[in-house]
Amino acid sequence: MKDQERSATQLIEEQRATINELQTPVIEVWDGILALPIVGSVDTARAQDMNERLLDRIIQTRSEIVILDITAVPVVDTAVAKHLLETVSSARLLGAEVLIVGLSSKTAMTLVHLGLDLGGVITRTTLAKGLELAFERLGLRVVASESSRDGRQS
Amino acid sequence: MARVPIIRVGDILLATIQEDLHDSDALAMQEALTTQLERTGARGVLLDFTTVQTVDSFLGRMLNDVVAAIRLLGATTVVVGIQPAVAVTLVELGLELKGIQTALDAERGMRLLGMGIDTNRRHR
């Protein structure tokens, strides 16, 4: 009985670790650009873990821009906003610029009603727009290749 | 003599902050930086934090103060090489260095101060 209990606890621990791993992937989307797609709710422990991973990756990849994608965060309340702002501030201290993308109209209104204007943080509605801005900051431009341009015309 | 050497490179003063800086050393650095700035008329200051692994509230506040003083003297400060743990501590202390320019390393910091070494590659 004890053994069963122990293995069950162990299983839960393992699964929790797996979920934690899955929760916070830091993706290098381009040379110098990191993206952090946040899925689900953000609590203090998760925010800290996320922040640590992100900061380490910034150093590792020498990235200049970080895109925080909050598309899949269901509710952005004061606590979540505080965590986001802490991430923004600490990444900025390392010398990286942070863009928050994936704000829905609902999130925007919630933030405004809560009196949180995310002062000074650059925000965009979609990851694509954030990426476009990131490219611009790095002096890069995305252009269609000749063949695809021809294809579109015909 | 303070433990923080201040080197002048062109128009820029370069200060490399060593690990476990004592309060008195920090104050000495603050003093030395501002007096040198006044004397040389440098237009930029690069503070290198690469080797600093821990900060306390005193050092954090000193950093804010020295940057404010440098600004009053008409120069720009770029803080470079802040380590993740240091960044987290500073944010927790509420010392987010708002309005201070930061860069990942000295090279990029120099570029921010307009003293970029002309390399063909932007990264690495």
Structure description:
The complex is a heterodimer of chains A (154) and B (124). Chain A is α/β, with parallel strands linked by helices and 154 residues long. Chain A contains six helices and five strands, in the order αββαβαβαβαα. In chain A, strand 1 and strand 2 (33-39) form a beta hairpin. Chain A is globular, with a radius of gyration of 19 Å. The N and C termini of chain A lie far apart (72 Å). Chain B starts with 5 loop residues before the first strand and ends in a 12-residue tail after the last helix. In chain B, 40% of the residues lie in helices and 18% in strands. Chain B is an alpha/beta fold. In chain B, helix 1 runs parallel beside helix 2 (57-72). Chain B is globular. Chains A and B meet through helix 2 and helix 3 of A and helix 3 of B.
Termini of chain B, distance in Å?
36 Å
Assign the CATH class of chain B. Answer: Alpha Beta
Question: What is the beta-strand fraction of chain A?
Answer: 15-25%
Low-pLDDT regions of chain B: 120-124
Indicate how many domains the architecture of chain A comprises: 1
The biggest beta sheet of chain A is recorded as: 5 strands, mixed
The CATH level-2 architecture of chain B is identified as 2-Layer Sandwich
- Largest chain-chain contact? A-B, 22 and 23 residues
Q: Quaternary arrangement of the chains shown?
A: heterodimer
Coarse structural class of chain B: alpha/beta
Provide the gyration radius of chain B in Å. Answer: 14 Å
The structure class of chain A reads alpha/beta
Can you identify the CATH superfamily of chain A? Answer: STAS domain
> How many structural domains does the protein architecture of chain B include?
1
- The CATH topology of chain B comes to Transcription Regulator spoIIAA
Portion of residues in beta strands of chain B equals 15-25%
Q: Could you tell me the mean pLDDT of chain B?
A: 84
> How many H/I helical runs of chain B?
4
Shape of chain B: globular
- CA-atom Rg of chain A in angstroms: 19 Å
